[in-house]
Design brief:
The complex is a heterodimer of chains A (about 290) and B (about 220).
Chain A: H1 20-27, H2 47-50, H3 59-69, H4 89-106, H5 117-120, H6 132-141, H7 151-158, H8 179-183, E1 188-194, H9 197-205, E2 210-214, E3 217-227, E4 230-236, E5 245-248, E6 254-262, H10 263-272, E7 274-280
Antiparallel strand pairs in A: 1-7, 2-3, 2-7, 3-4, 4-6, 5-6
Chain B: H1 4-19, E1 26-27, E2 35-40, E3 44-49, E4 59-62, E5 71-76, E6 82-89, E7 97-102, E8 129-133, H2 141-152, H3 154-157, E9 160-163, H4 176-185, E10 192-196, E11 202-207, H5 212-221
Parallel strand pairs in B: 8-9
Antiparallel strand pairs in B: 1-2, 2-5, 3-6, 4-5, 6-7, 8-10, 10-11
Classes of the chains: A alpha+beta (about 290), B alpha+beta (about 220).
Chain lengths: ~290, ~220
């Protein structure tokens, strides 16, 4: 258990176990995660019951293999999100997770950036925030519109693949009539509830993207690391590029926006409800 | 190439429908060179896309009032190739603009006709892309390491889909490409890698090799790289 990921020596300690509520207040950013409503608390299967769980003694070796590749799910990220002054963190993180799975299935060049506000505005008020399982239900049934500032989306619309794009932010921006016909191309399939630290780390080792929250803020977790005997989970935040540590994302781009949670924070997240997404819709127009 | 005709037809349709009330995009002459020049009377964001939707490196210029104002986009491309140009005006009051440009210059030399195949031998079809069918429920770190190696190779990544056998489309119907692959495989177990020709026909398959290197070798031996 004495293995330390090489990247640990270079990460910025300011972004380990950040107190999101305090940081948001200090920097003018927004949180917005609500606890799971009772009726949705157990809507999805439990990861630990359905998937492989690695014993803790194996984590260092397995994480060393990840480190040897030089990166993990962060390499599937096209852009760090910025939710602006809206409490839409759950949907911003969900959009990021969905895009990561698009990249895993179809390739980074086939990722369409998604408008998280197109989902949040139906599931929260201007100030309320929202819950992760609520977003999961929305993503399985309705989906998100693609972003109107993504050239690939503009090209798709020109090619007649779907009709409507939407801004990433802007709670009051109305959606075009018939937008759900577009959003159904950008849905997820099958979510798993992650209830233990062992399930959390095992899912990360096997390449699942995780959504977890604490301090009323939700982020997408993308990579496990070891710091001696300590497990660390790296996340992609949605406070733009002014927050966080720098990592290499898709296409070799260096981007800020990352932070790190130690075991205590992971325990908090899994106790309050954390989720992993299994797959996304493959639109019929998408072919290699 | 199979995708380009309907795609371009759709682009042309979009061009016609968008351009009816848009500030028109003017394709400037390039005196036979393989460069594209398009201008318009307003300012905004330009996008140039190849036939496969890949973004093309281009340079946009704002024109001075002395030069007539507006903006202009310039790019270098392949002789004889067609490109879709999209323009998003800064003003939300103006609609999008779109046009298709075929570059001049010398067209690529056509390859010689292939030798005539004797009628008793099946035609040789080349693999150009691949599909990896992987049951998400039983996949593990080894599979993610393979996926990472493919996705980090930009050229290879564009040619490989990695899908669950239960993949669905936007209408919640089983994905047709996956269903065709499963039918082709019969009762051969997953995970499996399949090579496809340009028309989507299956031209080979194997048990998914154990390492990323072995997967890349399998693909490379079939011309997929």
């Amino acid at each position: 258990m004495s293995y330390t990921s090489p990247i640990i020596s270079s990460i910025d300690q300011r972004f380990i176990d950040v107190n999101f509520e305090r940081e948001a207040a200090d920097t003018g950013n927004f949180c917005g995660m609500l606890p799971p409503p009772d009726h949705l608390r157990d809507f999805s299967p439990d990861y630990e019951a359905a998937q492989r769980i690695y014993p803790e003694a194996q984590w260092p070796d397995l994480i060393a293999k990840i480190d040897a590749t030089g990166g993990w799910l962060e390499r599937y990220i096209r852009v760090i999100h910025n939710q602006g002054n809206e409490p839409s963190c759950v949907y911003a993180a969900t959009a990021q997770a969905t895009q990561i799975i698009q990249a895993k299935q179809h390739g980074v060049d086939q990722v369409r950036l998604l408008s998280w506000i197109s989902g949040y505005r139906h599931n929260g008020s201007r100030t309320s925030g929202s819950s992760v399982p609520g977003a999961a239900v929305w993503m399985e049934g309705t989906g998100l519109q693609p972003r109107n500032d993504d050239p690939r989306v503009i090209a798709d619309i020109a090619a007649g693949r779907y009709k409507y794009a939407h801004p990433a932010t802007g709670y009051s921006v109305a959606q075009a009539s018939g937008w759900k016909e577009t959003a159904k191309h950008f849905r997820t399939h099958e979510w798993f509830k992650v209830s233990t630290v062992a399930a959390w780390v095992s899912a990360q080792i096997d390449g699942w993207v995780l959504l977890g929250g604490r301090d009323q803020h939700c982020v997408a977790h993308v990579r496990p690391m070891m710091d001696g005997g300590r497990i660390i989970s790296m996340f992609a935040n949605s406070w733009g590029k002014e927050f966080g540590a720098t990592m290499e994302i898709a296409d070799g781009i260096k981007s800020r926006g990352f932070g790190y949670d130690s075991r205590g924070k992971i325990e908090t997240m899994v106790s309050r409800g954390a989720w992993a997404i299994r797959s996304v819709v493959k639109p019929s127009w998408l072919q290699v | 190439m199979k995708r380009s005709l309907p795609f371009l037809a759709a682009c042309l349709f979009a061009c016609v429908t968008i351009a009816q009330d848009a500030a028109s995009l003017q394709v400037l002459p390039s005196t036979g060179k393989a460069v594209g020049l398009v201008r318009t009377t307003s300012t905004g964001r330009w996008f140039v896309l190849a036939a496969d939707l890949a973004p093309v490196k281009s340079e946009a210029f704002k024109l001075t009032p002395e030069a007539g104002g507006g903006s202009l986009i310039f790019w270098e491309g392949n002789p004889g190739s067609r490109y879709t140009v999209l323009f998003v005006p800064d003003s939300s009051a103006e609609p999008l603009g779109a046009t298709v440009v075929t570059l001049g210059g010398n067209a690529p030399v056509e390859p010689p006709d292939p030798p005539i195949t004797p009628p008793d031998e099946p035609p040789v079809t080349a693999a150009v892309k691949a599909l990896i069918l992987l049951e998400t429920e039983t996949s593990d770190q080894r599979h993610e390491l393979i996926r990472q190696a493919i996705r980090r190779d930009k050229s290879l990544s564009a040619k490989v889909l990695i899908l669950d056998p239960n993949t669905k489309d936007e209408s919640d119907q089983p994905d047709k490409q996956v269903q065709a692959a499963l039918k082709h495989l019969g009762n051969r177990p997953l995970p499996r890698i399949l090579a496809l020709d340009s028309s989507g026909g299956f031209v080979g398959d194997a048990e998914l090799p154990a390492t990323a290197e072995a997967v890349k070798t399998w693909l490379s031996e079939r011309g997929i790289k």
